[in-house]
Amino acid sequence: MGNALTQKILITLGFLFAYRVLAYIPTPGVDLGVIKDFFDNNSGNALGMANMFSGGAVQRLSIISLGIMPYITASIVMELLAATFPTLGQMKKERDGMQKYMQIIRYFTIFITVVQAIGVSMGLQSMTGSAGQSAVMIDPVTFTVLATFSMLTGTMLLMWIGEQITQKGIGNGISLIIFAGIVSGLPAAISNTIRAVNAGEMNFLLIIAILAVMLLTVFVIIYVELGERRVPISYSRKTIMQNQTKRVMNYIPVKVNLSGVIPPIFASAVLMFPLTVLQASSNKWLTAIADALAPGGLVFNIATFVLVVFFAFFYASIAFNAKDIADNLKRQGGFIPGVRPGEHTKEFLNEVASRLTGSGAIYLAIISTVPFAIISGMGASFYFGGVSVLIIVQVALDTMRKIEAQRTMNQYDTLGNVGL
């Protein structure tokens, strides 16, 4: 393993360790005992799922209890705006424009974080423990200001950590943060399940059924994620002669799931924002809506299914640029057999991508809802559901691919240095 790869892995692990340390730094002015009791009674609703994505930071009311979701929400809004307004879309394609684009996302993240932090602070002020003690131990106004600035600082630190991992480490920083949060809660989820079996609350055969659902889910995810359509490419004789010493790609790999892990993450972010706000409300109508949208329920699963399909098509249209591929092929003297270069190649690739995206979107939606619904019906934890397993397996596969690509690059660099 090359020094560059080792350094990138160590940087990634170092930043993830910093993220886990932040999850244990509480927001000033709260009674953590009251917060813990509240979450013990609400572990099966939207707050429990938000706690899963934050790696337990919500239950501890850490400074990163809002997690990376405000940044993801801001990114979703900006992607939608970029697809709607050509000027913003063009800004994203330019190097200098991309910096401005990312800066707008950061400012929008600050706005969303402040709104959510104020909402959480106000909700905590009406929370009481079993003995009637308040969850907030200081002046309400002072607490709101302190909590808002603490949570804003925590979210901005998470955003920075994610960007640093993406730039200097291995893999996508935001995905790895969510991955680390979910994985950190697995030991406790497994321990609680074993405790429930020992106490007679869960049947051992039920545990075997849960494991079977999880293993089947993992198998399907790996099978589909490794699947791709290879569109053959031919080159003119002149191009082949000019590139005798180079490896020329003779096909275009188009993955079945072009959008990766982004759709379920985006769908969860969109659902978590209103659910968290509704859960903090004392209004009976808003509470009824929150209960109807509780994770594992029919309405929640339908909403998740629709949102995952939407984001799968939306993100695939951004990730796969058929026009750029067609133009590059034409410049390199390559063509798809039976398809004319240029516009016809673009249309052909768009058709292939659309068919695969349709299959990939349905696959993502089913994996995100069906296993979760089955496991929730068995009384198991969020951590064993479809979205968490999907994120863990997909991020692990993506990170392994990037490590392998880095190793291959290091081998080519070594051979180049010795003159081979």
Automatic annotation (TrEMBL):
The chain crosses the membrane at residues 61-83, 104-123, 143-161, 173-190, 202-224, 256-278, 298-322, 356-374, 380-397. It is found in: Cell membrane; Membrane. It is a multi-pass membrane protein. Keywords: Cell membrane, Membrane, Protein transport, Translocation, Transmembrane, Transmembrane helix, Transport. PROSITE patterns: SECY_1, SECY_2. This is Protein translocase subunit SecY. Gene3D superfamilies: SecY subunit domain (1.10.3370.10). The keyword Cell membrane applies. The gene is secY. One of its GO terms (cellular component) is plasma membrane. The keyword Nucleus does not apply. Component of the Sec protein translocase complex. Heterotrimer consisting of SecY, SecE and SecG subunits. The heterotrimers can form oligomers, although 1 heterotrimer is thought to be able to translocate proteins. Interacts with the ribosome. Interacts with SecDF, and other proteins may be involved. Interacts with SecA. The central subunit of the protein translocation channel SecYEG. Consists of two halves formed by TMs 1-5 and 6-10. These two domains form a lateral gate at the front which open onto the bilayer between TMs 2 and 7, and are clamped together by SecE at the back. The channel is closed by both a pore ring composed of hydrophobic SecY resides and a short helix (helix 2A) on the extracellular side of the membrane which forms a plug. The plug probably moves laterally to allow the channel to open. The ring and the pore may move independently. GO terms for biological process: intracellular protein transmembrane transport; protein targeting; protein transport by the Sec complex. Belongs to the SecY/SEC61-alpha family. It comes from the Bacteria. InterPro entries: SecY, SecY/SEC61-alpha, SecY_CS, SecY_dom_sf.
